[in-house]
């Protein structure tokens, strides 16, 4: 499926793309129309080498930001984030998979958003030997 054939969903970011983190300004500044706090149910957070991985897990919750791209910047932002996350559709070497999941806003409403979750091989390794980030919030990991 080409990028243009996919739905234009907002992005749920939970690690280095959040405001105040190292990749926020590099990738999101000038390309977003809005951002607001959000929570992803059904996932937990693991430490990675300087960045986190969300792993789908019933009962868990991950905190982050729900970010909407400016319409004219959407395609460029999507391609940039796919590159940053080492994601290519169907590639078994992916570190992350981009999936559409419901994200809950602060007011309790839900919206479907793109989320980069750990790819299956990474998920297996993290579940076996990874360090869980208690509470699911990258900002409060230390």
Automatic annotation (TrEMBL):
InterPro entries per the UniProt record, alphabetical: AIG2-like_dom, GGCT-like, GGCT-like_sf
Residue intervals of the Gamma-glutamylcyclotransferase AIG2-like domain: 11-139
Pfam name, any one: GGACT
UniProt xrefs under SUPFAM superfamilies: Gamma-glutamyl cyclotransferase-like
Regions that span the bilayer: none
Protein known as: Gamma-glutamylcyclotransferase
Organism annotation: Streptomyces dengpaensis
